[in-house]
């Protein structure tokens, strides 16, 4: 990979330890993927924030980098393993909280904005169409590539951090237009009526597309929340982190219809629900907000919880960014939600919080949430926001 003089000097270590290490990572990646050069990135989103996943070795690595590593571009974080303010209320241990706080402090020293969310595009880290960025979290990467039309590979935690310290990433993969051409045609003949239908559709297309880029027709309308849910699901279950939807996402009209064609019918949607949902009626945890809730979703939850009480046998989490929660405070939604006995889980999520062994079953609006909850040995139910709120109030899935 070609390096200019400044990049060579960074690689030699003239700009300190963290920049040198970062350049080593970027050069190794560039060589593996035959990148011609490094390109500037407009922003970075870093995953690998939860102490649950990092452990002590990861924490030590971050503390080492934080000695002289400072980010060069706007950089935000993926969810951490706990709500950074309200962790006690979510049943997190003192020991875990202490370690998680050390992780966050290391990121802060690097100059990263401690907004721990997988929806950076809703809290001010919003790239423009065509902008090169280096983001990590799979749903955010898919949303950025597909809905915004920015260009990013799916970075690992270390390569995203390296891009943040250098302000550049190797020019390969989805940064190149030739790798952004759709190669499977998906005709959707099923009716999509609620948020979770987009998760179910992502499940079907993700499995059928198998590492391809879908070119999708037949979806009549979709709002941002539905597209963020679809983005999370499609990439979790198998497709590349990029798709095109006719009349909904940018760039569709620039491409020719791929020859390989798959049709999704109503029955496929029902089958997806059958596969995602387990046989369980008692619900111990309800979690809405995978990806993190927008203010619109928080408003819907608040509306449904007016004069209701969450069952004493059920814990109810509204997972969101802290910024969305602050807006919810101002709008009065937080009061309604907390009065009903539900809890905000800011800065964290159902996949990266240490939940294993705490709950046997979960209800959620998210197909991705179900995927990770099964890894946490929970039985899963997926449905609309209303179905999840009902499960929270009754403690049962109907
Ligand atoms: Fe976000 Fe966690 Fe879901 S990172 S997409 S809330 S699994």
Please describe what this structure looks like:
- Helix 4 (94-109) links the parallel strand 3 and strand 4.
- 41% of the residues lie in helices and 16% in strands.
- It is an alpha/beta fold and 398 residues long.
- The strands form four sheets. It has a five-stranded parallel beta sheet, sandwiched between helices. A four-stranded parallel beta sheet has the order 4-3-2-5. A four-stranded parallel beta sheet has the order 9-8-7-10.
- The chain has helices at 5-12, 17-32, 51-65, 94-109, 138-148, 157-166, 195-209, 224-236, 266-276, 295-305, 322-331, 333-339, 367-375, 385-394; strands spanning 38-40, 43-46, 74-77, 113-116, 134-135, 168-170, 184-188, 214-217, 244-245, 261-264, 285-293, 315-320, 343-346, 361-364, 379-382.
- It is globular, with a radius of gyration of 21 Å.
Layout of secondary structure:
Layout: H1 5-12, H2 17-32, E1 38-40, E2 43-46, H3 51-65, E3 74-77, H4 94-109, E4 113-116, E5 134-135, H5 138-148, H6 157-166, E6 168-170, E7 184-188, H7 195-209, E8 214-217, H8 224-236, E9 244-245, E10 261-264, H9 266-276, E11 285-293, H10 295-305, E12 315-320, H11 322-331, H12 333-339, E13 343-346, E14 361-364, H13 367-375, E15 379-382, H14 385-394
Parallel strand pairs: 2-3, 2-5, 3-4, 7-8, 7-10, 8-9, 11-12, 11-14, 12-13, 14-15
Antiparallel strand pairs: 1-6
């Amino acid at each position: 990979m070609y390096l200019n003089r400044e990049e060579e000097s960074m690689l030699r270590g003239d700009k300190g330890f963290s920049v040198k290490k970062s350049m080593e990572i970027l050069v190794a990646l560039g060589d593996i993927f035959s990148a011609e050069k490094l390109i500037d990135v407009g922003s970075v989103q870093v995953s690998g924030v939860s102490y649950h996943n990092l452990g002590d070795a990861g924490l030590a690595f971050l503390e080492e980098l934080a000695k002289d590593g400072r980010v060069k571009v706007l950089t935000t974080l993926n969810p951490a393993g706990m709500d950074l303010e309200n962790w006690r209320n979510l049943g997190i241990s003192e020991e875990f909280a202490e370690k998680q706080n050390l992780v966050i402090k290391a990121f802060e020293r690097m100059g990263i904005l401690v907004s721990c969310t997988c929806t950076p595009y809703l809290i001010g880290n919003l790239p423009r169409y065509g902008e090169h960025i280096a983001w990590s979290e799979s749903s955010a990467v898919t949303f950025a590539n597909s809905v915004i039309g920015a260009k990013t590979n799916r970075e690992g935690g270390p390569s995203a951090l390296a891009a943040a310290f250098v302000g550049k990433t190797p020019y390969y993969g989805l940064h190149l237009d030739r790798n952004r051409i759709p190669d499977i045609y998906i005709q959707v003949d099923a009716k999509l009526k609620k948020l979770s239908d987009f998760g179910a559709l992502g499940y079907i297309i993700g499995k059928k597309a198998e590492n391809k880029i879908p070119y999708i027709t037949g979806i009549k309308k979709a709002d941002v929340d539905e597209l963020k849910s679809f983005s999370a699901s499609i990439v979790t279950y198998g497709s590349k982190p990029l798709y095109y939807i006719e009349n909904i996402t940018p760039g569709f009209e620039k491409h020719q219809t791929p020859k390989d064609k798959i049709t999704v019918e109503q029955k496929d949607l029902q089958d997806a629900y059958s596969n995602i949902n387990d046989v369980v009626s008692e619900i111990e945890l309800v979690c809405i907000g995978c990806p993190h809730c927008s203010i619109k979703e928080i408003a819907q939850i608040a509306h449904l919880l007016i004069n209701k009480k969450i069952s004493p046998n059920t814990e109810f989490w509204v997972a969101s960014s802290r910024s969305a929660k602050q807006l919810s405070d101002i709008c009065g939604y937080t009061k309604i939600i907390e009065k009903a006995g539900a809890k905000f889980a800011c800065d964290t999520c159902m996949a990266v919080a240490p939940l294993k062994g705490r709950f046997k079953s979960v209800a959620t609006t998210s197909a991705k949430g179900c995927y990770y909850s099964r890894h946490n040995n929970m039985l899963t139910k997926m449905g609309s926001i209303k179905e999840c709120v009902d499960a929270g109030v009754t403690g049962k899935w109907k």
